Amino acid sequence: MILLAESQYFPSVTFINAAIILSHVDFVLYEPFQKMSFRNRCVVAGSNGRVNLSIPLVEGRNQRKPTLEVRIDNRTRWQSQHWKTITSCYNRSPWFEFYKHGLGELYRQPVEKLTDWNRRCWEWLVEQLGVAIKTRYLEAPLSECGQEYLDWRNKLLPRSIEKEFPDPLKYRQVFEDRTGFIPHLSGLDLLFCVGPASAELLRSSKIPT
Q1: Among candidates 169, 193, 10, 202, which has minimal Cα distance to 89?
Q2: How would you classify the pairing of strands 2-6 and 24-28?
Q3: Got the DSSP string for 133-170?
Q4: What is the DSSP secondary-structure string of 103-115?
Q5: Rounded Cα–Cα distance for residues 129 and 200 (Å)
Q6: What whole-number distance in Å separates Cα of residue 87 and Cα of residue 113?
Q7: What is the pLDDT along the chain (209 residues), one digit of tens a residue?
Q8: Residue pair 109/130 in contact by the 8 Å Cβ criterion
Q9: Which of 43, 49, 95, 182 has the smallest C-beta neighbourhood within 10 Å, fewest atoms?
Q10: How far is the C-alpha of 152 from the C-alpha of 91, rounded, in Å?
Q11: What Å distances lie between residue 37 and 1, 28, 57, 158, CA to CA?
Q12: Alpha helices in the chain (DSSP H)
């Protein structure tokens, strides 16, 4: 079975959980961009709770062109701002020092298209997890038949992910004693909190439902 979803900015632990178990993901790039989604947003945890990191877009968030054509507005120093926020949130986490140099370099690389950035983030995260996940980036609908999909397109949305997936994978978080456990954060949160054991934790659990 193949996990089918839209392109996402450092996807949630819930998404990665399913991707690792299925070992095959197809990212759909040809569908219209949708605002208030994880296409240009990821969520991390700060000392006061959730922190949204949103990528600014040329033509704004209300555009309806295919996600493949959406361009990033680099007039703002969003990469520097996001990196500073990530550092502030996780510099006390057990594994941030281990991963920070590679991730910091990623945030220094210029990028123009949203899907290019999301692809870099996904490939970096998969590499750090040390897992093999076959990944395709679909710029047009597939013509072949017989594909069996777990279709999560527009199912993982910031406003509804907790309702759709009420039983999330749990692990010890940096500020859990202050905020309680926060579900459905970016996979970065899991990586910085659990480190190399992240993949085994995900493999040993079931696909979120």
Answers
A1: 193
A2: parallel
A3: -EEEEESS----S---EEE-TTTS-TTTHHHH--S---
A4: HHHHTTS---BHH
A5: 9
A6: 24
A7: 999 999 999 999 999 999 999 999 999 999 999 999 999 999 999 999 999 999 999 988 888 899 999 999 999 999 999 999 999 999 999 999 999 999 999 999 999 999 999 999 999 999 999 999 999 999 998 766 567 999 999 999 999 999 999 999 999 999 999 999 999 999 999 999 999 999 999 999 988 87
A8: no
A9: 49
A10: 32
A11: 24, 14, 13, 6
A12: 13-22, 78-90, 96-106, 114-129, 161-164, 176-179, 187-194, 198-203
Amino acid occupying residue 147: Q
Give one word for 154, left, alpha or beta, with left for phi > 0 and alpha for psi -120 to 50: left
Farthest-apart Cα atoms in the chain, separation = 50
